[in-house]
Structure formats: C-alpha cells, structure tokens
Write a structure and sequence with these properties.
alpha/beta; Leucine-rich repeat, LRR (right-handed beta-alpha superhelix); 9 strands; nine-stranded parallel beta sheet; about 20% helix; about 10% strand
C-alpha cells in the first residue's frame, strides 16, 4: 500500500515561481501585478524586478508579515493594496513611492507608521482600518492631496493637530478608537463632507467644527460620552443639520425613487 501525503503540496514554491515568471509578461504589459490570495509570506522578487513598469500591485489576502527594501524599486507605482495580511510594521522605504495615490493597508496588525509617512504627498486615499495603531505621525499634515482617510478600529487616543494640513480631505473615519477629543485644527478642513467618530471617548467638540467645515453633511458621533444636547449647542449645528437633511432627501428622491419615474412617450 502506498503512503498518502497530507502535508503541503510538494514543489509548491517552485510552482509559484514558475507561475509568476509566466505572468510577469502580463504584468509588464498591463502595469498591474496581481498576487491576491496566493498564500504568500513575502512579495516575490520577480515582482520587484518589474520596477517602474508597475502602476498597481495587489497582494491582499496573503500571509505577508513585512515588506523588504525591494518595494522602493516600484517607484512609479500609484496603487498598493496589502489588506488582510500580517504586517506589523511598514518598511521606511515605502515613503520613496512618490507617485503613490492609493494605499490600502486595512486588516493587518500594524502598530506603528514611519514617522516620515507624510512624504507620500501624492496620496489621495489611505485605508488603515482594523490595525493596532496607537498614534498617527504628525507628518500626515503634508498629505495635502489626501481625500479619504480611514482609521476605524484601531487604538488611537488622539489625532495630530497637523491633520489640519490635509486641505483636500473630504472623508475621515475614526470609528471604534479611544479618542478623547478631536483636534482643534480639524476645523481647517474646509472640504470635509463626512466625519465618523462613533464608539470613542469624546466628551466635547471643537466649537468651530460646524462653522468652518461648511461642507460637512454627514457627522456621526454615536456611543460617545458627549450628549446629543451638547452637540446641538455647538455653533452652527442648525446649518449642518439642514445640509444633512438636504443630502438625505437627495439620496431618496434622486436615487431610490428616480428609477420608478416613467413618462409617456
């Protein structure tokens, strides 16, 4: 009777290498390196060898624990997706990806960001949800093109005042953290439309929040110590609430109902 093999498939790594070598032709042609859900513990060297030809890399849903210095070879990359891995730290050389516009790192174990993360000045979307972050570097204020910042489900006790430098920010999600207050300089975010801070420890709000953030139309602060009446006492809450209602009406009458409207020919 022959013996059955119940361990990892023999030659698995060799097969992966051969597969990557074949696919590298497609990577070069499209500029997209697709490595999602392959059980990888690191990004293969052949991916780095594509260098400036790479515009996007998706290595999500793997078992990657760290990035090596080779990531800096992809210096023309605009989108990097590493969600659902086992990353603890980010390689400092990630800040050399000066063309990066989208960085998706949710569902990892990251507890610290490089202090120079703000050098990613072209970044427009940053997702850091569901990690172990305790702080955000002050250099984030240099990300003047950042439009969406997702920080939910971390261990943040505060946000840096320098966040006020993110002049293009439209959406900020910091739900399920340990925030005790919002930085005063958040009031400098004149383009902010969405602010989500549910499930924190916030007791008071900056008094100019609704005055200066004149485009804010979605603000959620459920399950915080601050009481509803205190939120409503913040200057210009009434104007904010009118924007919120107007947005809600547009969603109902301009979205859900428009498909039901018919006209006779």
């Amino acid at each position: 009777m022959g013996c059955a093999w119940f361990g990892p498939a023999k030659g698995t790594n060799g097969a992966k290498t051969q597969s990557h070598e074949r696919r590298s032709l497609t990577w070069r042609a499209t500029g997209v390196v697709a490595l999602r859900g392959e059980g990888l513990t690191s990004i293969p060297k052949i991916a780095y060898e594509q260098g400036p030809l790479v515009k996007a890399l998706d290595a999500s849903h793997n078992d990657i624990e760290e990035l090596d210095d080779g990531i800096s070879y992809l210096n023309k990359m605009q989108r990097l997706t590493l969600s659902n891995n086992k990353l603890n730290l980010l390689c400092d050389r990630i800040v050399l990806l000066s063309k990066l516009r989208v960085l998706i790192l949710n569902d990892n174990k990251i507890f610290e960001l490089p202090s120079t993360i703000g050098r990613l000045t072209q970044l427009e979307h940053l997702n850091l949800e569901n990690n172990n972050l305790r702080s955000i570097p002050e250099s984030i204020g240099y990300m003047t093109r950042l439009q969406t910042l997702q920080l939910g489900r971390n261990r943040l006790k505060s946000l840096p005042e320098t966040i006020g430098g993110c002049h293009s920010l439209e959406e900020l999600d910091a739900t399920k953290n340990q925030l005790e207050k919002l930085p005063e300089y958040i009031c400098k975010l004149e383009l902010l439309k969405v602010l989500l801070v549910d499930n924190n420890l916030i007791e008071e709000l900056p008094q100019k929040l609704f005055t200066n953030c004149a485009m804010l139309a979605t603000f959620s602060i459920h399950r915080n110590p601050i009481e509803t009446k205190d939120v409503q006492l913040v200057p210009n809450f009434k104007e904010y609430n009118e924007r919120r209602v107007q947005k809600y009406d547009k969603q109902i009458y301009g979205g859900a109902m428009k498909d039901e409207i018919h006209f006779d020919q």
